[in-house]
Every structure is written in C-alpha cells, then in structure tokens.
Write a structure and sequence with these properties.
nine-stranded mixed β-sheet; Rossmann fold; alpha/beta; 2 domains; 38% helix
Length: 472
Amino acid sequence: MNILFAASEAVPFAASGGLADVAGSLPRAISEKGHKCAVVMPLYRSVPDKQRKKMTFITNITVDVSWRKQYCGIYKADIDGITYFLIDNEYYFDREGMYGFYDDCERFVFFDRAVLEMLKVISFKPDILCCNDWQTALIPVYYHVYYRYQQGYDSIKTAFIIHNIEYQGSFGKEVLGEVMGISSYNAGLLEYDGRINMLKGALETADQLITVSPSYAWEILDPWYAHGLDRILVTKQHKLCGILNGIDTRLYDPSTDPEIEKNYSAEDISGKAECRKALLKELHMLDNGQPVIGIVTRFVNHKGLDLIRCMMEEIVRTGVKFAVLGSGEKMYEDFFLEMARRYPDRVSVSLGFLPELSHRIYAGSDMFLMPSKSEPCGLTQMISQRYGTIPIVRETGGLRDTVRDNGGENGNGFTFKTYNANDMADAISRARKTYADKAEWESLIKRAMKCDNSWSEAAGEYVKVFEGLIES
C-alpha cells in the first residue's frame, strides 16, 4: 500500500504536541512492515535550518481558496525511509507559531486543498489518505465533493484520526462560501449547531474514523467526552475504531538516552538511582528519602490540574517532592510557581517546552502523576513506564488502556476511577506505601519497563484497517 499522512505538524520538522510524534513515528513503523509511507505538512517558519538543508524544491502550483488563487510551493525531503512533502506559502505559514491566528480557517483550507492538488504533480500516488485532527478535516470533504470522480483520484480511500475531539475547527457560517468555496448544496456536511464545523465534515465524509486509543473510541459517544459531537458520532459507529498510540522507543530509551545521568535497563536498574540523585541536584532539592513525583504536561484544565491544585500542598507537607515541567494557562503557571516559592526544597517548576529536562524528569522521578479529566491516549505515561517511573493516573481514555493498577496481578502503575481529588490522593498514598517496600518497588519498576509501548503493534492494527478499506 501507498499511504499519505496529512498533518499540521510532524517530527522532525515542527512539533507542539503529541500529534507531531504520531505523524513522525507511525509512518516509519508502517513502512517497516513493507508499505510505502509519506507525510505532507505545512512549511512553517520554525522548521529548523538543519531540516531545510535536506529539502529539495519540486514545483509550484496554484491553489483555489474560494475565489482566491494562491501560490503553493512543494518541497520534498527523504528521512529514515519516509518521504516528507512540505507545502510552502509565506503569507499563511511564515509566522511565529503554528496556530492561534485570526485566519486559521483560511490557512488550513489552503493547506487541505493544496494536499489534494499536489497529488497531480508528485510521483507518490496514495491508496490511503490518512488525515489528522481538524486542521486536515476538510481533505476528506473536498475529496468527497470535488475529487473522487476525477481521473487519478478514483481509487483513494480516506481515513481520519481523532487525536482530541475537543478541537474541532468551528467557525461562523460565512466561511462556507467566502473561504472554503463550498456550495450551499453541500453545506449539510459541515453545518452543526448553527456553525461550520470542520471536524464534523470529516466525520461525515471519511471512509474510516480512528481514535488514538480503544477506550476513547467509546468514550466520545458520551456527551461528557464528545464536546457536542456525540449526536453525530453515534450514527458513525460502523466506521469508528480505536487504535492505541505507541511511543518512539529509540528516542525514549533509558539504556541509550544521552540526556540522562546514567543509562540503565530493566535487567539492571541501578542507574536509575544515579538519575534520581542528579535530578534532585539539578533542581536544587535535597533527598529526604521521600518519593519524587514528576509532572510533564500542558497546563490546561482537562489534564486534571484542578485536582492537583486542590491537594498538592497537603501532599507536599508529607515530604513528597514534585518536579514539574510545562506551560499553558496562566492560573496554573501561577499556582505552580507559588508552590515552588513556598516550598523551594520540595517543589521545582520549569516553564516551557524543554525536551532535555523532560527526559531527566522521566528518568529521575520515582512516580509520574497524570490525573486527567480526559486523555485520548496520552504518551507521557508510556514514556514514564519506559524509564521505570511509575504512573499514577485516572482511568480514562488511553490511560485506562495502558496502566494497570498495582492492586492486581501484573500491575504497572496506580489508578483511580472517579474525577475526585481525594481519590487521587489515595492513589498517591498507596504508591507511597509500596515505595516504602524496596523489593516490591523494584519489581514494579521492572514490570513497568518491560511493557511494550512501541509503535510495532499499533502499526499492525493500522495496516489491517487500511487493507480492509482497500478491499471494501
């Protein structure tokens, strides 16, 4: 099969979150199973010079954005057996940052049309066009409305991966004709609750819908998780499935990681103690024998930070230490900074996106806290397991699928069910009691490190789904 992944970001060119990791890792894992994969994404200003030097210019075309005729340059780069196509338009993408602009609708309308127009001039002819999140949600819509009967397009199947249903690309009705160039005849594909909803268009027109964990596939049929789209999703269950994300086990490997103090493995975990000691020294915290809890996250509400805010001071007073890394909503940034000011010997807070420090927190912490209100998949709990740092999570989405409570056989973490601060504190308390038993804790570390969270199994599931599409 030839599979083209369309995404608004992808490692190693541009990244702001888990989508980039998936778009960079999944194609490589599928290609290792004998299929040809390519990735297409915008050419942002932030693409590093190191990667720009690998790019070659193919050609330029003109792309329709409603009544506008826009320049589109097409670049190509081959990295690790994957072909990357980068869509160039300086007006739309030569900016500081990737998202959050007043014309995001127009920017990604342009990108989505460019992806389909690009197929006329490149040698890569996809059997599957796999789109990711709302920024690429119009690709299956445009294919359905304008391209499926054109010569060279008739055999393409479209798949759409929902990474987080909260982000839908919802805009006023005026964008339908003025920006998208879609007639009122096809307005029903995109209209939802009095607005134009790009994600809803993908739900209507894609041949296959995929979520990033099995649990999330059935959770989003519930209004609590669906952010208003449950009414349409319950009618699309016949083409909805969930496939658990993996992690890049080459990037996150404590036996070879150059960013940590000392390498270690599940067979010999002695180096983890050195990593813990080095982390405490780097963060200016003394070792009092109590566990270190790591938090690496975006500071947004659905990550469960209100639970942490409710109980953190009480937990800190027991002697537990926190190593916090992240950025986001100011109220959470201010809260964590205030905690670090009050307890400088027990709370360290680093604001921003610091990949090197995140590796040292994964390796040097004893536990990893993720009390998410919702979590489509989550990568950090799998990364923490890889480093033998025991996750404490709420049972939701991918957290439910990857973390088994230590109260049962083959446990690899600690879980709690209800979205309640006291239940979270109880899970932390149970983890601390286990931590006090060094032999049991060492066994738990080894079980966590032996979990297979690689992309290999997920890639096999994607191949089965894509082969089923082609045969249908």
